[in-house]
TrEMBL record:
Pfam families: N6_N4_Mtase. Residues 50-175, 196-258 form the DNA methylase N-4/N-6 domain. It comes from Gimesia algae. Belongs to the N(4)/N(6)-methyltransferase family. One of its GO terms (biological process) is methylation. One of its GO terms (cellular component) is cytoplasm. It is an enzyme of class 2 (transferase). GO terms for molecular function: DNA binding; N-methyltransferase activity; site-specific DNA-methyltransferase (adenine-specific) activity. The gene is dpnA_1. Its EC number is 2.1.1.-. InterPro entries: DNA_methylase_N4/N6, DNA_methylase_N6_adenine_CS, RM_Methyltransferase, SAM-dependent_MTases_sf. PROSITE patterns: N6_MTASE. This is Methyltransferase. Keywords: Methyltransferase, Transferase.
Length: 275
């Protein structure tokens, strides 16, 4: 696996962003993971430090009034088989409080972003409108919608349904969209299937998809994922020569992310082993 080289000199932007965050759970070369609550950690980020907020928060989709849908191990693994992927927290909010909560962490990230920084947030069909509101409430100018087509194996509750085959990535910028000369325009739609060997989280995103999305970060620039889970954004950043900081509440997922990053830095993609 080829790995693009980033500028290995001490990166002032990356060092400044970490300055008040305390001891990382894991750090290696250009990537740092902090374990804790994103609202608490994000409040310690300095202004003007980040090139892109790229994240995949708990969607809290269908959580209201339905205890089953607020339990990720039942919601995302309907067969009941988690295959050893740990469950995770934060997926319980109803739509109103989800919007309020998202606007809080997005506005914290907005403060930490540079002018013209990108904001890319994953969401499903059910919470899409809510997330578009939250992105704007958080301060970003909403600029468009990227679709991620997961393919024909995506779930349909029964035959009468059109498959829930796509997830969405509403995107925006802090002020004007930068006029890039070295890369872009970026595709607005991606058809990339989920490979079980590349899925280390119940809701893990494909590494090749995240490699496409981190292209909005300048080479050697800094990506920020406040819900990094198994670390797919961070692995993609390694592979594409970007710096990255991730926050994650679950110790188990911090550990999984760290192992994946170490492998990527050796030039390997760690394979998920089912249990
Ligand atoms: C949808 S998953 C991210 C999956 C990731 N994209 C991947 O490919 O592995 C969201 C993650 O956010 C974490 N999380 C939930 N609430 C959090 C909070 N308040 N602070 C930090 N992390 C949180 C969960 O533990 C979960 O791992």
């Amino acid at each position: 696996m080829a790995r693009k080289q980033s500028n290995r000199r001490k990166n002032k932007q990356y060092e400044a962003a970490k300055k008040n965050l305390g001891k990382p759970f894991f750090e290696s070369k250009e990537i740092a993971i902090y374990q804790g609550d994103t609202l608490e950690l994000s409040s310690k980020l300095p202004a003007n430090a980040i090139d892109a907020l790229i994240t995949d928060p708990p969607y809290c989709s269908g959580a209201a009034g339905c205890a089953v849908m607020a339990d990720p191990s039942k919601k995302y693994c309907q067969s009941g088989k988690t295959l050893g992927r740990p469950s995770f927290g934060g997926d319980f909010r109803d739509q109103r409080s989800f919007k309020y909560w998202c606007s809080l962490w997005i506005s914290q990230a907005f403060n930490a972003c540079k002018d013209s920084a990108y904001c890319l947030v994953f969401i499903d069909w059910r919470q899409l409108a809510t997330m578009i509101d939250a992105i704007q409430a958080g301060g970003f100018c909403y600029k468009g919608l990227i679709s991620w087509d997961k393919g024909g194996s995506a779930r349909a509750p029964h035959k009468g349904y059109f498959r829930h085959q796509c997830e969405f990535i509403p995107w925006g910028t802090k002020g004007i969209v930068p006029r890039l000369t070295d890369r872009g325009p970026f595709a607005g739609s991606y058809s990339i299937g989920v490979k079980q060997t590349d899925k280390h989280h119940m809701t893990g995103k494909p590494t090749p998809l995240m490699q496409k999305l981190v292209q909005c970060v300048p080479s050697g620039g800094l990506a920020f994922d406040p819900f990094c889970g198994s670390g797919t954004t961070l692995v993609a950043s390694v592979l594409e020569g970007r710096y990255a900081i991730g926050f994650e509440a679950s110790e188990q997922y911090c550990e999984i992310a760290a192992r994946r990053i170490e492998a990527a830095q050796r030039g390997e993609l760690l394979k998920f082993q089912k249990q």
